[in-house]
Amino acid sequence: MKKVRAATVAVLFGGALLLNGCSAEPQNPLTCGINATFDLTPKQPVVGQETFFGLTLTEKKQDIEIPGAQVTLTLQPQGDTTATPLTLDLQEVETGRYTGTTSFPKPGTWNGHVTAEKDGTTAETDVEFVAEP
Q1: Which one is predicted more confidently, 114 or 20?
Q2: Tell me: the pLDDT tens digits for 13-33?
């Protein structure tokens, strides 16, 4: 399995992430890198309220949606390695658009780890979200 790893990127209320690792004419769009754009509802997560995560995956070179990936978002409170992580298996709801919901159990900054896998290739990146009390 090929892995593409990105540097840490902070996302507070939404934004774009870029994963690099492109080669000439890749067979799998994950090998070239992806743009991963989040949108949240509510825009500012609140402890105890359900937060909707929308994630759009696009291929880096041609900016086209990536269908059929297995996408997971794992959330861990920053600085608390003993807390049980929240894991969301995001479901594809339309081409390149993946969604899931969860509630943050406590306020503060949460480290998020996004993993996208397709046809044996994995791309990963890290993000941050802030949950208000």
Answers
A1: 114
A2: 333 443 444 545 556 777 776
If you count them, how many residues does the chain have?
133
List C-alpha distances in Å: 117 to 46, 60, 72, 83, 104: 30, 15, 9, 26, 25
Distance from chain centroid for Cα 116: 8
Query: pTM value?
Result: 0.78
E strand segments, the chain:
2-8, 14-18, 34-41, 50-59, 70-77, 86-94, 97-103, 108-118, 121-131
Q: How far is CA 27 from CA 23, 32, 34, 121, in A?
A: 10, 9, 14, 10
